[in-house]
Design a protein that fits this description.
The chain is α/β, with parallel strands linked by helices and 336 residues long. The protein contains 13 helices and 13 strands. The strands form four sheets. The chain has a seven-stranded mixed β-sheet with strand order 7-4-3-8-9-13-12, sandwiched between helices.
């Protein structure tokens, strides 16, 4: 028998403090589901014993048929649809956007019942698309991966969406970009309903140094994703690998099978800028990300992206973005 409850000091059974129901879409993202549920599992008991002591969870569905993830691994629901108010949260785990009907109508009805009973709903990965399609994100801002931002805007132009943060969570809705941010969101629930010690225990076992917050910035889309030409992409990927500016343009051209003149002609044609200017932009984008996500001194960031001193770095940064590095950092802190 599963240890569903822990014993209080007087010997009476105390219910789990955090109860989560998972709705898995067809072709759901296994990693996002696994990280979320494993954070709950590790926070629920001590020393990785996996007891459902302080938390409980169920995979709920309209049938008990196996649900196939996007990687082919199948998961069986552990519960039929029950009264949604049994759960503190209902978490919808999305997956491939090419699936025409990611969940069935019974699932949509269940999610609307949960909303009517004021049970908070969370969209993980593309789960926010499912909630939006069900009309359940009208007064809420969705947080999606930069990879899916454009498609969300096209499908739901009337809804608020952002792709600069890892996740959002208010009293009635949550959404996250997927991937490792699923663990960050789960950790926040653990801290709220169980304890900081439980959160710390879960993250330590998962080898996660610390939980990120809703204000942490989502890793940005690489610049090379804006361009179709394979040679341009290959060159810009190499630029990102040598973000300190140490890769000569001649060598960069040779690495993609071109002369410097040929590379410059292709870059002007495909990107509207020279390879040198593109390289500079890659370095400045990296610096911009570091400024927003760390307290590293300006000189340290300057050296990381290939500048000899902070003043030279500051001038180039301001020329690129219209503000100094210090101004950008201050603005990022206010946004947090």
């Amino acid at each position: 028998m599963r240890p569903e409850h822990r014993l209080a000091d007087d010997g009476a059974k105390e219910p789990a403090r955090l109860k989560v129901g998972f709705v898995l879409s067809r072709s759901f993202t296994l990693s996002a589901f696994a990280l979320f549920v494993d954070t709950l599992r590790l926070a629920s008991d001590e020393q990785d014993r996996s007891g459902r002591v302080l938390a409980d969870w169920q995979v709920i569905g309209s049938t008990r048929h196996l649900i196939t993830s996007s990687c082919g691994v199948q998961v069986a629901p552990t519960s039929d649809f029950v009264d949604p108010s049994r759960f503190n949260y209902i978490v919808v785990v999305g997956g491939l956007l090419t699936v025409e009907n990611p969940v069935d109508q019974q699932t949509i009805t269940f999610l609307r019942q949960a909303d009517a009973k004021k049970v908070p709903l969370i969209g993980v990965c593309t789960g926010s698309f499912i909630l939006a399609a069900a009309g359940l994100m009208k007064r809420h801002e969705s947080c999606v991966s930069w990879l899916h931002y454009k498609e969300f805007r096209e499908r739901f132009p009337e809804l608020a969406v952002r792709s600069d943060r890892l996740f959002n969570l208010d009293r009635q809705r949550g959404s996250c970009a997927g991937g490792s941010s699923a663990a960050d969101m789960a950790a926040l629930l653990v801290r709220k309903y169980i304890s900081r010690d439980a959160e710390r225990n879960a993250l330590e076992v998962l080898q996660i140094e610390k939980a990120r917050t809703p204000s942490d910035i989502q890793p940005r889309r690489p610049l090379y994703d804006d361009y179709e030409d394979a040679r341009v992409k290959a060159a810009m990927i190499t630029m990102e690998q040598f973000v300190d500016g140490s890769m000569p343009i001649e060598k960069l051209a040779a690495m993609v099978g071109l002369s410097r003149r040929q590379l410059e002609r292709i870059f002007i044609e495909k990107t509207g800028m020279s390879p040198a200017k593109a390289y500079n932009r890659v370095r400045m984008e990296r610096a911009k990300s570091i400024l927003a996500q760390s307290k590293a001194p300006l000189i340290e960031i300057a050296l990381d992206v290939g500048f000899e001193n902070a003043s030279q770095f500051t001038r180039t940064f301001k020329r690129t973005f219209g503000q100094t590095p210090s101004q950008h950092r201050a603005a990022a802190l206010r946004a947090h």
